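thoughts on both lines:
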Amino acid sequence: MVTPTAKPSSALVRYGGYFVSVGTARVLGLLITSVTFPILVRRLGVETYGLWSYVVALCTFLDVVANPGLSTHITQQAAALRHAAAELVPDFLALRGLSSLVAIVILLAIAGFEVRPDVRSLLRWYGVGALCVGLTGTDFLLTSLELFHVRSLLALIQQALYAVGVLTLVRTPKDIVWLPASILGSALVTNLAGWLVLWRNGFRPPLVINPSRWWGILVPSLHYAATTMMATVYHRTGHIVVRWFLGDYALGLYAAAVRFVDLLRNFVSIALSVLMPRMALAARSSAGLRRLVQAAVSALAVTSIPLMLGTLSTAHLVVPWVLGASYAGAVVPVRWMSAFLLAAPIASLLSGTVLYALGRHRAYLASATVGAVVAVLSCLILVHVFGLTGACVSFVLGELGVGVTAYLLIPRDLRDLWKNPMIAVAGFSAVLMVGAVRLANSYTARPLLVVAVGAAVYLIAAAVLGRKLLLQQFGDAS
């Protein structure tokens, strides 16, 4: 029996619903995180938050060992084979289990060299727990089987459970043990719920392991693992180097600044994550891909440029207000990292969106590798010479290295993407915004009022100067 092909209009409605579901979940998740983060850093204090960030950074490296691209590969296979891919799940879990054992051994060895008992305890308790809970994850299957609504709902539930745990259990730095408990507990609950949903939808992995298939799974997986490791290096190296050279207090300021700008950057990445599937679909058409890339550049410009300049001009007001007076020392690091709000979306667009959508995995890996090399070398040199400022600059340089390399590797007919009039519109409107912020700040020091004035001026200027152009570009790309 032949299944009738879905009408284009119904498919558009269905996938439009997926985009709305995923986008809404990400926005709400960011809002929950935006509320939880300031409370968490205040209650933990500068030094304890820095140590926690150091533990997370180390565990992120080890997570690549525990999951060397296996989830990425199985996601592709499950998307292509759907329920027939259930036969691969036992082999995937077996490989994940073996690689997780290797990661646990490395983790325990690192913890054995840790001089601080509290950090050693966190590495053992949170690190081992995270590696074990990771084995129960279902995101890759929910995505492959297009259960986006379920995945979005479970993501929101996990964020909410985590927030409740932090807000009710973490009161002082001594309560740090409840932070990993909140993370791991919420993840385990939602992961098990994901398996229940899969079971109810008829997904039945057989309890059969076939080692002869392992090499075929590992070869493509290790490629993705290398790319993930490079991305982890240029994102997390600073945490380790800052602690080594500058100590726990400086690490707390650095980690808070990184998290602060990363939260802002996540609002830009939502648009890119929605555009990536359409770019992959348009990859066969040079003209269609070009229109989509130009639309993405416009979306990036109208959000990233004002975020960068706004952070630079309001950090002295917003950072102490969000993080607390004890983090006043993070104002300067946040200002040095404000360029990250432009460099990171550029890198994400050119490497993680364009190159990935075109299927140029080697170029994708090359750009991530350059970013990792630049981040490590610049961090080791600049931290030694300039201290915390050097760490902040190297954090931005890593993203810049990814973006420049990806720009040189994208198709030649896309390299004039910087010739987009919306960049000038966004830049001019953002300059007016900075002027309005300075003027408002001369009359009041209330962060919300100053930010509101700047945002209003920017939105009005951008709407007057670029509304028609923006509508035209997105109309052509649709």
